[in-house]
Amino acid sequence: MVSASGTDPAAQVETKAPLLERLGVLYFRRLSASLPRVAAADAVSVLNAEERRHLSVVVRGAVIRASLAGAVSAALAAGAEVLADRLFGAEHASFDVTARYWALVGGVTIVTAVAEILYLYWDSLRAVHQLSRAAGLDPFATEASSDGAAVAAALARAALELPNPTERVFGVDPRREASKIKLAIASLLYKVKVSVTNFAVKVLVRRLAGRALVRTWLPFVAVPGTAAWNGLVCWIVLREAKIRVMGPSAARELVGAIFDQGITLSAEGRLALVRAVASSIVRTEDLHPNLHAVLVEVLRRVDDPLPEDIDDSRVFLDVLARLPPAEQRMALQILLSAAIIDGRYTSAEKRLLHEAQAACGRTPDVRPAERLRRAFVAGAGSLDELIRTLL
């Protein structure tokens, strides 16, 4: 049995963070120390008109800077290749000429790539910090709150594109049902995305352009491609950061609204709510910080010892079928909250919700999840009222 009582669930995870994550949190803390505290007019999960405008300004500026950084880096590397072709010729007559050619091209490419990466990391951290303050949150101003420290770490991982932790938490293994081959392929595709895009564009240019034009300008084909990728990745990073900023507040709001419906839960019903979140984590194969926040909020209200199979989705579905209708509805509401709290609603989560609805004798329906997800991502507020009306 895994105990969930006697301590604050938010303080249960004490694994050492990666170096980059720790450096990111340290940078956040220094930025916060030099700025006035944030005074939010409403809950962090609610974005008012002024906050939306400020967020748009932050995102637009960061995307433009990231695109320019990619364009400059690619242009310098391309310029080095063109210069090397003129100095040493396209056909290298000897090993010495070849070595000097690649020393010039490789040296400039490596230096510009390293400078680009360092700049993107720094600017991404700075933009994420600005974005969190624009949304009304600054968890970096103090180290007293364990929730604030967790959000700071989650935002640092988002800014630096670091993966979420894979360790077991409260007996929940995010990779319990994961395919190792699928994870490896996804990682490989992520690493080569820019290279494949630039290669494809170069092949197209070779087919469409004349020989002289190709020889002169082909190296510069990577400039718009790299700029576009940088801009897209930056936008994705900041979207994810915004979702992580709003997540803990939304988790408290949603879980609080579900538990405050005046329903007396049985011991099996209480554990079913924990199983709902754990099953969502297992199905997504990822311990997203917002999912972790939902799990923590549920465990703060459920002090029963947790069984070893708390993260077995099949057991969750079997237990769900035995619960009375009121407890089934609460479990489905918790599952719905967990499914959308990371800003996505994946096919695996849809299957789990369909299976859970079927186990309760309901007709599967994805529309409630889509409504809740759109409201959360938009920061539209009233999540507590919406969750009570769904399902």
Structure overview:
This protein has helices spanning 19-33, 49-88, 95-134, 146-159, 180-208, 211-217, 222-259, 267-284, 289-299, 313-322, 325-340, 347-359, 367-378, 383-389. The protein has 391 residues and is mainly α. It is elongated and about 80 Å long. Mean pLDDT is 80; it is low at 196-215. It comes from Polyangium mundeleinium. InterPro entries: TerB-like (IPR029024). The chain crosses the membrane at residues 62-80, 100-122, 217-238. Keywords: Membrane, Transmembrane, Transmembrane helix.
User: What is the gyration radius calculated from CA atoms?
Assistant: 25 Å
How widely separated are the two ends?
A: 32 Å
% residues in beta strands? under 5%
Which residues sit in consecutive blocks of at least 5 with pLDDT less than 50? 196-215
Number of helical segments with 4 or more residues: 14
Give a short summary of the structure:
The chain crosses the membrane at residues 62-80, 100-122, 217-238. Keywords: Membrane, Transmembrane, Transmembrane helix. It contains 14 helices and no strands.
Could you list some keywords that capture this structure?
391 residues; 14 helices; elongated; transmembrane; single chain; membrane; mainly alpha; TerB-like; Co-chaperone DjlA N-terminal domain-containing protein
